[in-house]
Amino acid sequence: MDEELKRQLERVGEALTLPSFNVGISYQGKRSFHSFGFRDGIKDAVDSKTIYPLASASKAFIAASVLMLASEGLCELDKPVHDYLPEIEFYVPYMTEQITIRDILSHRTGLPRHDVQMILQGDVSLSEMMYLLRFLPPAYKLRERFHYQNHMFGLATYLVEELSGKPWQAFVQERILSPLKMKRTTTGFHDYYQIDDNYVAPLVLKEGKNVPIPEMNPDNLGCCGSISASIEDLLTWGEVNLGQGTLRGVSIYPQDCAVELHKPTTPIRAGDLTPMPNPDEVSSFDYGLGWFIETYRDHKLVQHGGTLFGYKSLVGFMPDLDLAFAILINQNSTLGCEVMERYILDAYLKVEPNDWVDFYQSAQQVLKDKKAKTQKKLFGDPKTKVDYSCYVGVYQHPAYGQISFEVGENCLVGTAGTAKFQLVPGKADQFVLTTAMDPTGSPCHFIEGEKGAAVFSAKLDEDCPQNIEFVRVE
């Protein structure tokens, strides 16, 4: 990594007010690292051994684990998951009968994200979460299109446990982390506390300052997002995938597994993943098995990022250049990983870079303005007097769990597990559900019964064709 690239990465860090970042690059077998900032944004400088949560960059670990088991004859990618896990059921019978292992690893089952369910059921075990799949409605037909779905990588985790006969953490440790000497990588929420205090705090940018943000425990979906690592270890993971499963004489998975993992399986159309547009330099965009695959400036790029409250990550490789890279940041919903990735690739492709900070910030602002304009139409007059007392009670959904409501200051205060939110007046008889993380809100309403509010109905997933309905139980 030359000094000009380091300076460019620091300019990105300063432009985006990042509290810290770590970047690792392996080019033709030579590794280099660059660390910037502080663990909590104020003190204790980060270094290449500082641990960050990886969030969804964890997915490639469980995808590789499934492929290892398939290579050993314990499963077949194109057979239904139900053949191996007969206790698993989906909302629609044909989904139970037809969804394959390849489907769950490539985001084409037809399920929308249902991320709110994952958050509200934060204290539920992996096996319990898998039982609740039967209550999550689909948004699309099986294999109709790409739709990113975290629960399916929880299902892949559960499959690894059932096929291997051991906890997924033990399987990943024994088959991946230990052979690669990834000693600063952990498999559970806050497991890194047991190593030392060289880890970052989760932060969010508010009014120009990085401030602490509550963490989310992702363990209820297993290896969907539970791994944490230092930049040194994450780069090692990028290198072994660049090497098609082998690194410095250590074989983690056979080459035929690499072919399956890193080949396009599900096409991603504009808007399928995010409203944020891809730059013109990206001429194709697909999902493999636990990895995104794109063509960037006519070169194949394999990568996967991760987002968790207060954290962002990205790991990838470009086979043509014998290049692997990794990026870790402790700021919520930052564009830093995407921006740095483009500058890194342009540097090693030896092309004049675009102004990637401006590209991503401008695109993000357009989306924010559009969303704000749309959401503004949801809210009613804040001075509207509402008799909230008739809505007070406990409401239940079989998958999303319980929500309780109590009267707040000109609002209803909702509690679901450790999550808190507010319902404020909307248009007509609607309410708007707002949280500290998403003040723009989601539409919701109550359905009246003989004795007052009987059902709380909310649009908790914008792609789900139906509202999620909680029936009053108290």
Largest sheet: 8 strands, antiparallel
Tally of helical segments:
13
CATH architecture of the largest domain: 3-Layer(aba) Sandwich
Rounded average pLDDT: 94
Beta-strand share of residues: 25-35%
State the strand order across the main sheet: 2-1-15-14-13-12-11-10
Q: State the total count of DSSP E strands.
A: 23
CATH top level assignment of the largest domain: Alpha Beta
Summing up helix and strand content along with how strands pair, one would put the structural category as alpha+beta
- Extract low-pLDDT stretches: none
The radius of gyration is 23 Å
Give a topology summary:
Blueprint: H1 3-15, E1 20-27, E2 30-37, E3 51-53, H2 59-71, H3 81-84, H4 93-98, H5 101-105, H6 115-120, H7 126-131, H8 151-164, H9 168-177, E4 185-186, E5 203-206, E6 209-212, E7 228-230, H10 231-242, E8 246-247, E9 250-251, H11 255-261, E10 266-267, E11 282-287, E12 292-296, E13 299-308, E14 311-318, E15 323-329, H12 336-349, H13 356-376, E16 393-397, E17 401-407, E18 412-416, E19 419-425, E20 431-434, E21 442-449, E22 452-458, E23 468-472
Antiparallel strand pairs: 1-2, 1-15, 3-7, 4-7, 5-6, 8-9, 10-11, 11-12, 12-13, 13-14, 14-15, 16-17, 16-23, 17-18, 18-19, 19-20, 20-21, 21-22, 22-23
